[in-house]
Design a protein that fits this description.
alpha/beta; Capsule_synth_CapA; globular
Amino acid sequence: MLEAVKEELETADIAVANQESVTGGTALGLSDYPSFNSPHEAADALKQAGIDVVTMANNHALDRGEKALRSAIRHWRELGVEYAGASDSEADRSRLRLVERSGIRLAFLAFTEGTNGIASPRGRSYLVHRLEERRMKQEIAEARRAADAVIVSLHFGREYERLPSPAQRRLARQAADAGADIILGHHPHVLQPPEWIANRRGGRTLAVYSLGNFLAAQRQPDPHTRIGAILHAELQLPPAGVNGVPPAVRIGNVRLQTTFIRFHGWRSFRVVPLAEAGEADLPEADGLRRSLQAHLQRWMPDLIVR
């Protein structure tokens, strides 16, 4: 499924993915829309493709209940993949997800606006990390004190809207001011243009409002639901801070590698670079690629889009 983009994922120091369909395993019975459960092999495929961190806070996290979520968490642990946005105990909920690469400590947090009306079981609100603004800002601030860079995943916005809503931009600003360096958004299922946010720390936060669909089987007429992007960004830590204040991480070489979901008869799904999609895959493919590049550069004219 991911062979065409595997090298791109593997060569990164750290690769992050939003795993929206809970990988609860076949023992619970596989299921698709509107109540998802995927096999553990889906998680195995992401691990083999080079994914190091998955975010689990999304509107489908509780589709198949607590048992499926716990099974998924257990399997991610067995694979050695860090997970954010879901927990199997209060102690796990309070654990900061820290990963170090090349001498830079990265904290990962993830929050979702909702779970399709499914409440966590009584006394187990820790299962899914919900987007409660006060708690989100508090946890980001705490992560800021422990890490060199804070990556925040937000499952928010309106489905199929190609521009972020005012609410998305407001929440992103709150996360930026609280200490987020990069915001990774998803839920709209289509690409939304990213932007830089000037934060209260005097730096810039990269807000990527929606990365579209990376691997999905949505039966939507809109071709944009078959398009996603891999975000590339380089983080650099200056050698020293000022007056005991830790130096702010620098974010550079930002680019988006656009991707396309190729399939035949709703089988044999493959993720390929969008540049490889031809007219047989995507009517008026060349024109769509050009318009998509302009769309993604709306607020970042120098953004590299491939």
